Amino acid sequence: MPALKLFAAIAAAVLVHLGLMQLWPDLARTLDVFLVVVVLYGLGGSSLASLFAGLVVGMVHDTLTNNPFGLFGFADTIVGYSTARLAQRLVIQRATGVLALVSFAAALQEAIVVGLVVMLLPDPQLPTPIGVALKAGLCGVLGMFLYIAGKHWLQGSETRRRSRMSRLRLN
Amino acid sequence: MDERRTIWVLIVVLVAQLVYVAVQGAEAGDTWLESVALRVLGPAARAVTSVPTSFKDFREGLRMRGSLQEENARLQRENEALRLRLLQLSDLENDMRRLGAAVEYTTPPVGAIRAVDVVYVDHASWLRTLVLYTGDQPARVNQPVLSSQGLVGRVVTVAGPYAKVQLITDRAASVGAMVLRNRRQGVVRGSGLGRGGLELDYVPRQADVKPGDLVLTAGIDGVYPRGIPIGSVVKVERGGQLFHSIHVAPAVDLGALDQVYLLDHSSVPPEVKEAEPGARP
C-alpha cells in the first residue's frame, strides 16, 4: 500500500511539474514538487523505504532535466533518509513543523546538487542565495498545505467510516 | 531492518550513484537508465503538452477568424514575390553548379528535414532540456535539431519514439560557428547567464566583429552542416590578451518551440575525426 501511494504521488508530481512547465516555467524552476513528495513520504518514518523513495523520485526528476543523470537521485536519496531519521527522533504534528522540515530539506538538496555540479562541471552556474531561500520557502509552503489537506482528508474519511459503522450497529 | 544495516544500504546506494554520475562526466550522453526513464515519462509529457496546445489553437482560431481574408491576401502577394525570387535564385544555383563542376568542387550532402513535435521544454532551468516525439522513425544521437529561425541543438538521448535534445544554450554545448560578414570562425557556447545567452569564443581581437553581425554554423565541428543561423552579435568586449569576448543572442526563441525539424545529416565518423595527421595508412 505505501508503494502504491508513492507511485501515485510520483505520477501526480510528474503531471504537476509538466503542467507548471507549460504554464509558468519560472515557477516550475523554483518549486520542486518532487522534493515535497520525498519529504512527505519520509515523514512516515521508515528510513530504508524513504531512502529508496528518494532515489526513485530523484531519478524521475533527473529524466526531466539534462545530464548528468543521477544528480537529483543522489541528493533526494540523502534528503529522504535524513527526513525519515528526523521524523523518528522528533514528533512533527504541527503544520509549521512540516513547513520548517520541507524548507530545510530544500536547502539541503540545493547544497548537495551545487556540490556535485561544482565537482562535475567545468564552469557551473550556481544559484543565488535569494533563489535558494525562495525555493525553500515555496517548497515549505506547498509541503505544509499538502500535509494539512492530507490530514483533513484522513479525518474526514475516519468520520465517515465511524458513522457507517454506527449505522450498521443500529441496523 | 536495523538502523546500522540501513546506513550500509545508504552508503552503497550513494557510492553507486556517485560512480554512475562521475562516469558520465560533464558531457551529455545516452545512458540506458535515462532511456528507460524517458520511455516511461515521454507519453505523460506528450499528453500534458497537448492539452494547452489544443486549447490555445482553438482560442487562436476564434480570434484570428476576422483577419483571415486580409492575411490570405498578404500571403498571396508574398508568395508572388517569393516565386520571383526563387526563379532568380534557381538561375544563380545553375550558374554555381556549372562553375563548381568545371573545377570539380564537391560539397558535403545536406539531407532532408523532418518536422517533429516538442513534448517538453525546460528552457527556464539552468540544466536546459527539450524532449521530442519522433514517432515511428526514431532520431539518431548527434542529429541536428532546427527551427524555422535557426539552430536549436542536437539529439543526445534516444528512447524509442522520444529523443532528448541538448539546446545550444546549454553550458556544456559548443558549436563550430562563423561570422557571416567576414567568415571568421570561432566556437559558440551557452553562456548560462540570465535566460539562454550565447558566447562566441576564439575570435581573435584583430577580427572585425560588430553588434548586429549574423553568426552561422561553420560546418567544422563534424555535427552541424554549414550555414544554419545561430544568432546575432549583441555585444563585443575586450576579452583576454588574444580573443574578443562576444555575446550572441540566439536566433531561436527557445521558450516558444512547439515543433522543430530534425535534419538528416550524417556527422563525421569518429575514426576520421580521431585519426592522427602524421599516421601512415
Indicate the topology.
The complex is a heterodimer of chains A (171) and B (281).
Chain A lengths: L1 H22 L1 H6 L2 H10 L4 H17 L7 H19 L5 H26 L8 H42 L1
Chain B lengths: L2 H22 L7 H33 L3 H35 L10 E10 L6 E5 L10 E3 L4 E9 L2 E6 L6 E6 L5 E6 L7 E4 L12 E4 L11 E10 L5 E7 L8 E5 L6 H4 L8
What does it look like?
The complex is a heterodimer of chains A (171) and B (281). Chain A is mostly helical. Chain A contains seven helices and no strands. The mean pLDDT of chain A is 85. Chain B has a single domain (24-267), classed as Rod shape-determining protein MreC, domain 2 (Thrombin, subunit H, Beta Barrel), CATH 2.40.10.350. Chain B contains four helices and twelve strands. Chain B has helices spanning 3-24, 32-64, 68-102, 270-273; strands at residues 113-122, 129-133, 144-146, 151-159, 162-167, 174-179, 185-190, 198-201, 214-217, 229-238, 244-250, 259-263. A six-stranded antiparallel β-barrel of chain B has the order 1-2-5-4-3-12. In chain B, a hairpin with a 5-residue loop joins strand 10 and strand 11 (244-250). At the A-B interface, helix 1, helix 2, helix 4 and helix 5 of A face helix 1, helix 2 and strand 1 of B.
